């Protein structure tokens, strides 16, 4: 029995037991394909092919997912290839599968990586900030315009995007009416992403569930920057005083 055949035999027996939430879809010399599905949106299928020199050469690795972004998968594939290179001359598949499974566990925000990448493009360098907290499956958004600022914590639930993100104001020195507007509208935007309208009009298209991270973060960034330097339509003066501690007349 060849080294590859021995590895395939071991994989058939141990992968479902050792790799949580895994399914062996193919395990033959031509290809090994294993699907790892922690949730509907946190799933990766790992495919391996072998040349005649394997395991002295690296297995050809391909990672696929319906919901995780191509950019993230490309980076994860490169890391998997580096891990396989460290195990040349030995079975490589199980090492890579463990690595991919651990990545899903340790990076719960992988299900919204493309949204995070998109909203980062809207941040103003030097004033705005978006920090990822993988351990708590959350992001911290900081937006600053002049001397005004807000800081929000956005938590991504396990079954995201089927469930909306949880929104919490941590700090904000905008006037009270704007603070209430920012928070209430953020929650409403998130709700509309996952719940159909309560009163549907006959000509409305069918409701389609949408991820709520990007719409909420985009709203907070846009609105926080919009009002500070705007003019009052009645008196034509700045709507906000330069100093947040000064109450407008």
TrEMBL record:
<dbReference type="InterPro" id="IPR006575">
    <property type="entry name" value="RWD_dom"/>
</dbReference>
<dbReference type="InterPro" id="IPR016135">
    <property type="entry name" value="UBQ-conjugating_enzyme/RWD"/>
</dbReference>
<dbReference type="Pfam" id="PF05773">
    <property type="entry name" value="RWD"/>
</dbReference>
<protein>
    <recommendedName>
        <fullName>RWD domain-containing protein</fullName>
    </recommendedName>
</protein>
<feature type="domain" description="RWD">
    <location>
        <begin position="6"/>
        <end position="107"/>
    </location>
</feature>
